Amino acid sequence: YGDAHHLLVKTINTDPNFIGTTSPLGDRCTVFLTSMKHIKALLQNQADNVIKHQKFIWPWKEYVTKTSITFREGDDHKRLRRILAKSFHFDYLKRNIPVISKIAKEAFDDLEISGLTDLHPLIEMGAITGEVIGRTFFGFDHKKAFYRGKKITDAVFFVETEAPMLSQTLLYQIFGPKLVKLQLTPYHKRTVSFFKGFREYCSTFVAKRKEELRADPGKANLDNLIDGLLLQQFEDEKNAMSDPEILDQYIVFFLAGQQTTAHWLTMILYCLAKNPQYVDKIRNEIKTTITDINNLDYNELTNMVYLNAVMKEVLRLYPPVHMFFFREAIRDFQLCELKIKKGTLLNVFLGHSVYNEKIFKNARNFDPTRWMDQGEGTNLPDPFCLIPFSAGDHSCIGQHMAWLQIRIILIHLISRFNVTVPEDYKLIMTQRLAYEPLEFFKISLHKLK
Hints:
By secondary structure, the chain is of the alpha+beta class. The protein has 17 helices and 13 strands. Strand 4 and strand 5 form a beta hairpin. Helix 8 crosses helix 11, helix 11 packs across helix 12 and helix 11 packs across helix 13. The mean pLDDT is 91.
């Protein structure tokens, strides 16, 4: 039916008592929740009852990003979030607008030279979002960084793709991490070597910057994440992040921030190519709202009604993340009327409400106007109807940065180009680590006269 989640969506709309699905996974029972009531109850109380299932996240923790905020629980998670939150405040976002704008302009200038046709949107958008993370979070140009012959942004894409694939292979499910550690297969040898090398490669960036700041703290740029974390370490090592923790935050923000935002942008481009009337509306909105495209203003960016509506509608239809890492119940507990046993694996379907015809009419249709002029999206019965960045203590800490950079990238793109996809392309959505096209489309950009 063109969508990996077709059966879930169909059941949500035909069975008002549908709570979710259950199935075996090895020796475990899994519960996949599709009811907003149950998802809300889980997310609001997960800290006391569940943790991320260690077998699924083992490849990440063992070889890639061991102590990142993504994989920490309880007080450790709260401590890291408290430290990192200082780097995502309103002033930080505002000060980085010129940097993001410059990156977008440079990227589209380069594309005009290299070619505007038959572009892979995820790769092109990932290069831009990766560069945004490189410069705004870590203060240096990633375009010149290569690892094993790959651009650093391409290496990140490989790591993000292969880590979950490694934990989903039949051999891993049967024998677990021990087989991977032994590296008896060429696949395990190749993948583990890449992961280990990638981590060591990234550590050189952090170590080099630490040496520079220790020699001269006055060179610190407080508008990027890594300098702030290192300065905290110099001033109060006991309450600051350790070197491995700083490295792991660097890696996880690169992994999570680059690809999820690039997926969101990719699907926005698809929807705009299929609905060019909204491109015209956004282009007119740029002319009437943006005073100076080379000196973007935060308030003007957030006041772009059509642009914001398009972004939110794409996030509703094609969110980069439709489910989480599996959570494991660490004790017996009550979830609404469900009795969850210790050891049960739980996950959630973030399309629980966004495809519900009782909440969104013609829910499978792309219609940005539902987020405008008192449309149904402007008056949702519960904030948990739309939670693409999760909710509660484990909500995405970088979501406001994602919104900001996509607005800026789209403003530069739409001001210069029209976008098309091949007429014979048929979109089929699948669920990998991201919710994404089974086969990616190509885009062509057409320079405005």
